Amino acid sequence: MRHLVRVLAVGVALTLASSTVAQTIGLSLSTLDNPFFVTLRDGAQQAAADLGLELLVTDARDSVSTQVNDIEDLIQRGVQVLIINPTDSAAVVPVVMAANAAGIPVIAVDRGIDGGTIAYFIASDNVAGGASAAEFICEQLGGTGPVVELEGIAGTSAARERGLGFNTFMRESCPGITIVARQTANFNRAEGLSVMENILVAQAQIAAVFAHNDEMALGALEAIEASGRDILVVGFDATDDAVAAVQAGRMAATVAQLPAMLGAQAVEAAAEIIASGAPAETVTVAVGLQLVTE
Amino acid sequence: MSPARINWREVFARFGLVMALVALVAILSLLSDRFLTPSNVVNVLRQISINAIIACGMTVVIIGRGIDLSVGSLLALTGVVGAGLAVGGLPAGFAILAALALGTALGTFNGLFVAYAGIAPFIVTLAGLTIFRGAALAYTDGRPITGLPPLFLTLGSGTFLGLPAPIWLMLAFLLVTHVILRFTALGRAVYAIGGNEEAARLSGIPVRRVKAFTFAYSGLAAALAAMVLNGRLNSAQPSAGVMFELDAIAAVVVGGTSLFGGRGGVFGTLVGALIIGVINNGMNLLNVPSFYQQIVKGGVILAALLIERIVATRRT
Prior knowledge:
The complex is a heterodimer of chains A (294) and B (316).
Chain A: H1 2-18, E1 24-29, H2 35-51, E2 54-59, H3 64-77, E3 81-84, H4 93-101, E4 106-109, E5 118-124, H5 126-140, E6 145-151, H6 157-173, E7 177-184, H7 189-202, E8 208-211, H8 214-227, E9 232-236, H9 240-247, E10 253-257, H10 259-276, E11 283-287, E12 289-292
Parallel strand pairs in A: 1-2, 1-3, 3-4, 4-5, 5-11, 6-7, 6-8, 8-9, 9-10
Antiparallel strand pairs in A: 10-12
Helix pairs in contact in A: 2-10, 3-4, 5-6, 7-8
Chain B: H1 8-31, H2 38-63, H3 71-87, H4 92-115, H5 121-140, E1 145-146, H6 150-157, E2 159-160, E3 163-164, H7 165-183, H8 185-195, H9 197-202, H10 207-233, E4 235-236, H11 244-254, H12 266-285, H13 290-315
Antiparallel strand pairs in B: 1-4, 2-3
Helix pairs in contact in B: 1-12, 1-13, 2-7, 2-8, 2-10, 2-11, 2-12, 3-4, 3-5, 3-10, 4-5, 4-10, 6-10, 7-8, 8-10, 11-12, 12-13
C-alpha cells in the first residue's frame, strides 16, 4: 500500500514536473531524519529557486535499496544532472554507472562515491576548519602560549586534514603559540579523558586544547574541570553535547559544518554543468566551516 | 651451595613480572621527572581501574579455558541502559543495580551457549560483541546520554580516604575475585576445568554450571566497569569500549595467566594492567608521536611476555 502511494506520488510529481520547461536536477538524499540533511536540502532548494532550476528531491530514509530505486526513478524522469548524497559510498556505484550510461552527469555531496564517473565532489573543508580553530585560539590567547592538540584516529582523512589546517596556521600565522603536546585520543571520549589527564600531569602550563572532534574535547573537558585548571577547549563537529557545553561556557568553541552551503554549492555545480558541460575529471569543491562560540 | 645464599632463579620465577614493571617504572622516571609523583601514581591507578575490573572477569573466564570477546560491547550496552534508566526517572541506585544485573544476565547468555550448546567461546562472544554493540546503538539511537544523577558521578570521580572511587572499586573487585578463585569450591572448580575438563567432570564437578558462571562473572565485571566509565565521563556513550576486550586479554596474559586455562590469578592481572597503563601514561608524558605509540605498546607487551616465558622455561 505504502509503495503504491509512493509510486502514485512520484508519478503525479513527474507529470507535473514534465509540464514545465525549466531544466531539471535530481537530488537523492540519504535521509531527512537527520536535521543536517534537512538543512542541506533547504540550501539546495533555495539555490535552485535562485537559479531558476527545477529540483526533484528524494529521501532514501537511510536505506540503500530505497536510494537505488529513487535514483532509477530520477534517471527515468530524465533529469539533466543527478546530485547524490550516498547512504553508502560503495552501494550506489552500479546505479551511478547506470546514470553515466544514460549520459547524466553525477555530483556527490557530503560523502564520496567509490566508482563511476563523478563530475563534482562537494564536501566540507576540514583543512579550513582546522585553520579557523587555530585562528580562534591564537586570537583568544593573544598570539602566545602553550597549546595541546588531541588528534583523531591516526591515518583517517578527518584527523589528517584538521591537523594540517590547524598546524599550518599556527606555524605560519601565529608563531608565538607552542604545541607542547600532540597526542591521539582516537576520536573517543574516554580516551580524550585519560590522555588529557596524562598531559595535565606532564605539562604545568597549558593555555588551550584543540581536539579533532567534540567527543575528545568533551573527555578532555572532564579532565580539565577535575584538575581545576583554567584551559580553553575547542572541538570540532558541533554535536549537540558540544554546542550545549559551549552555551554553558564550559567549552570555548566548536567548528560546525555548513550543510546549507553544501546543498547550494551542489546545485551551483549542477548549473555549471548544464551551462558548459561536465569537467573532464572530478572537481572537488571544499565548502567552508563556521566556528560556534556561543 | 650454602643455605644462606639467595636462589635468584627462584626469585625471578616468582617476581619476574613485578620486576619487569619495576624496570619500566625506573626507566620512565629517568625520562620524565613528572612520572613518579604521587599525583601521577594516583592518575595511573585511576586510569587502569576500568581495564583492571574487566580483566578480573576475563581472568576467571580464561582460567576456565574460555575467552570473552564481548566485554567492550557489553560495557557499552550496560552503560547506556543504566544511564538511560536513571535519566528516565528510576532512582540512581536501582538503575546501577539494574545495569549490573543486566551485565550478569548477558554474561550468562554467553555462558549458556558455551556450556550447554557446546559452541566455542570465541564464536559465542564474537556474536555477543556485535549483538550488544548493535543493541547499545539501537537503545540510544547512536547518541550519548547525558545529565546523569550525582550517584553516577560519585562512582567515577568521588574520593574516599584520599583515593578516587574507581581505585577502591578496582581493589574491592580484585579482592572479591581473588577470594572466589582461591578460597571457594567454585574457584577451585574453575581451575580444575581449565586444567583438565574431562578429569573435572569425572571428579563430580558440575562443569557446565561452573563454565556458565565464569561468563556471568565476566559480564558483571564489564557492567561494573561501565558504571565507573559513566561516572568518569559524566555521560554514557554507545560507542564506548571498542577494543576493550583486547586490552583486558593483554592484561590477563601479560599478567601470567595461561591462555590454555588452569593457571594464573588476578594479582598477576593487576600487574599486567599496570604495565599497560604505565606504558600509555609514559608515552603521553613523553609526547611520543601517535604513529609510534602503537608500535611501542605492542613491543613492550611482547618483551614482557618474552621475559615471562624465559623465566618460566628456566623454572621447569
